[in-house]
Amino acid sequence: MKKLSILLLAAGLVLAFTLPAAAVDHIFGGYWRVRAFTNKNFSGQDDEALDKTKTDSRTRLYYTAKFSDTFQFVNKFEFDWEYGESTGSNEGSALGDIGADGTSFEIKNSYVDFWTFNKKLQWKIGAQGYTIGRGFLFSDDFSGLYVAYNGDGWKIPFIWIKGEEGGTGPNANDQDVDYYAINPAFKFSGVSVNPYFMMAYSDDATKFGAVTKRQMAAYRFEEYRPWWIGLDLDYNLEGWNLWATGIWSGGSGDVVTATGTQSTDFEGFLLGAGASGAVGPVGLHGQVVYSSGDDDMTDDKYEGFFVPYGASYYWAEIMGYGVFDDQYSNNAPGDYITDTWFLNAGVDYKLIESLKLGLDLWYASLTQKEQIGATDEPLGTEVDFSATWNIMPKLNLDFVAAYLFAGDGTYDGPNQKDPYEIGTRLSLSF
User: Fold this and answer.
1) Which of 59, 150, 251, 338 is a Cys-bridge partner for 79, taking CB atoms 3.0 to 4.6 Å apart?
2) Distance CA 336, CA 136 (A)
3) pLDDT value at position 98?
4) How far, in Å, CA of 201 to CA of 224, rounded?
5) How far apart are CA 335 and CA 314, in angstroms?
């Protein structure tokens, strides 16, 4: 039976790749990069605790089988490795060490995408990627369902995200974690209006892993019922893009404690606004974001902006992941924007057709230092410099240098030292 299955699979692959062009279009693409970078003093101290120097690589290969304008099968595969990386064997069991032959193959996306009802209703079923609320709320790959009704200048998507499968056995279904979201968008006269609502649901989320990366990171929930409601606005005016976002987090969860559970209500919020455009050959951009923090982690209200697992918003290079998204400085939120406010102003300029320079200034501070037990609120002022050289079509070389003039919110002690980062990235898209 096993041999028959293998023969049938082989026959199916041969048939798929030998069908007439009119039956199926095979579309290939991909992305490749290699990065080398150094992080120093990311702990905010002169102790080398978070110091890191490494070279890593990523390859992504895309394959889409397009059967018609309303039906396609999408796949994205990924290989990640660090140079010199090893799993402890001398036989070359990791892609980065001597001998290569790595096992770091990943299936990033695999889903079917088709339209029904006269191209009005779009379906995506399988492992796919999606973003809600510019990433403040969600921006990741997931297994689930996307279905959207499309009109003239508007659409109303519904998204189901499977966060955790409880498995088998008594009460196993209670351990399921599901996200549900509706994310409509309306466009007219240069204006885009995008209201949205998302909720998470579980009777027992104790096996969900880290519910968040930063706030309440030591907590696990039994009953888990958070929700978020938000609005994104965009306005395009003569080459300028203006945007604004507001999100409120609500709902509740039963936090597991040493003596039982404690019900906690979520009452946080996030506000953000930004602009980007150009004045002659000079590009300008800026943004300001404020996310609430909690001033008392022992009461029954969590007033920090509660960030769901799967959110991701990159900002400053050192404090917010940036290009070399390996780690971020002590007490910064990284890409989970909570208990922080930050302000940014940036400029870029094409020195020649193939070389662009950029400079960004960031100031960031904790909203409530009590939330993470910091001694003060200012995280500091960060300066990021970048240069991008288009070596040839589709091949770019980036250079990044960043320095954080650390505030006492990053670290306040006798051995305080400013974090900095230097790195380069060679990337190819096709």
Assistant:
1) 59
2) 7
3) 62
4) 6
5) 5
The count of residues in the chain is 430
Q: What distance in Å separates the CA atoms of residue 417 and residue 401, rounded to the nearest whole number? A: 17
Q: Which of 416, 356, 413, 407 is nearest to 386 (CA)?
A: 356
The residue type of 339 is D
Taking the alpha carbons at both ends of the chain, their separation in whole angstroms is: 40
The mean pLDDT of the chain is 89
Percentage of the chain surpassing pLDDT 90? 74
Q: Give the other-Cβ count within 10 Å of 49's Cβ.
A: 11
* Residues 307-348: tens digit of each pLDDT: 998 999 999 999 999 999 999 999 999 999 999 999 999 999
Rg of the chain over CA atoms, in angstroms? 24
pLDDT band of 167, cuts 50, 70, 90:
confident
Which value, to the nearest 10 degrees, does the dihedral of the CA atoms of residues 14, 17, 21, 23 take?
Answer: 70
Written as six digits, the tokens of 239 are: 């080459």
Domain carrying residue 74: 2-429
**Is-contact 323 425, C-beta < 8 A?**
yes
Q: What angle do CA 308, 135, 184 make, to 5 degrees?
A: 95
Q: Taking a C-beta distance cutoff of 8 angstroms, is the pair 39, 418 a contact?
A: no
Q: d(Cα 414, Cα 44) in Å, to the nearest integer?
A: 11
* 229: nearest Cα among 277, 273, 267, 284: 267
Q: Strand 340-352 vs strand 301-302: parallel, antiparallel, or unpaired?
A: unpaired
Contact call for residues 104 and 67 (beta carbons, < 8 A): no
Which two tokens mark 379? 């995280």
- Rounded mean pLDDT, 91-107: 64
| Residue 81 confidence (pLDDT) above 60 | yes
Q: Is the pLDDT of residue 89 over 90?
A: no
Classified as helix, coil or strand, 15 is: helix
- Provide the domain count of the chain: 1
Pairing of the two strands 221-237 and 240-257: antiparallel
* Cα within 13 Å of Cα(157), Cβ side: 19
Region for residue 260 given its phi and psi (left: phi exceeds 0; alpha: psi -120 to 50; beta: otherwise): left
pLDDT at 1 over 70: no
Distance, in Å, from the CA atom of 285 to the CA atom of 65, rounded to the nearest integer, reads: 39
Please answer whether residues 150 and 120 qualify as being in contact, where contact means their C-beta atoms are separated by less than 8 angstroms.
Answer: yes
pTM of the predicted model, to two decimals?
Answer: 0.90
- For residue 274, the domain's CATH number is 2.40.160.100
DSSP character string of 67-123: EETTEEEEEEEEEEEETT---S-TT--STTSTT-----EEEEEEEEEEEETTTTEEE
Can you count the helices (H) and strands (E) in the chain? Answer: 1, 21
